[in-house]
Specification:
Structural class: mainly alpha
Strand content: under 5%
Radius of gyration: 17 Å
Largest sheet: none
Order of helices and strands: HHHHHHHHHHHH
Helix content: 55-70%
Number of helices: 12
Length: about 240
Amino acid sequence: MSAATWRPDDDVANTARSIALEIVRAAGAEGDLATYYSVNGDYAGATFAGLGDNDPRRITPTDLLAVTSLSVSIPPLAVRRFTSASRAPEINRLLEALPTDVGIRSGKAHSQAMSEFYDFVKRCLRRSGSEASNAWVTTSKICARKRPLLFPVRDSIVVEVLGLKGSYPDDWPVFAALMDDAEVTGGVQALVRQVAGQANVDVGDPALTLKHLDVLLWMHGMRQRQATAGNPSSPRPD
C-alpha cells in the first residue's frame, strides 16, 4: 500500500467514529478496561505489549509468547521461520524501516514499510504445503506487538464492531482517523488514567492509546457476540 492510497472511506470512517465514541463514553467502559487489565484475571492485559524486552529489530520467542496471550496459536514452522538466523537480516531490515515512536495517525508516511512488514509476517505464518496464508488476525497481532503505536490489533470482533471492510489497506486509515480524533483519543486516555489508579490493575504503557481503544472495542464486541450466541433466533457470527 502506497502513501497515495492512504485515505479512509468517508462513510466507513464516520460510522467507526460514532461507534467508537459511543463505546468509549458507555457507562461500562471503565469497568471493561479494569477487567481486561486486572493482574488477577485471565485476559492478556499488559502482558501482550509489556512481556519481556521487546527488541525493536527482531522477532523473538518472547514476542511469540506475548502474541499467544491474545488467544492465537503460532505453528511450529512459523516459529522456526521467525527465529531463524537466515531470516534475521530481512526482519531487521523491515523493522528498521518502521519507527518506534510514531503513531498510526502519521502512518501515511510509513504505509509502504507497514505493508511490507505485514505481508512478510503473513507469509511466515503460511502452513507447510500451502501457497498462501489467511492468518490475518495473527499477523495483525504480531505486527502490533512489534510496533503498538502503528499497528492496530485487528481481529474479526473489532472489524465487525467498527463496521470495517476487513482488509488492511482499507482498515488502517480508519484507525488513523480515530487516533487523529481528539474526542476519541481524549476519552480513551481519560479512562486509562482512571483505571491506572485502581488496585490490582496494570494498564502497561498508558501512551498506547491505539491498543487501549482496541481493548474497549473488543470487550464490547465480545459481549455482543455472547448475547447473539445465547439467542437461538439470531444468526451466530463467523
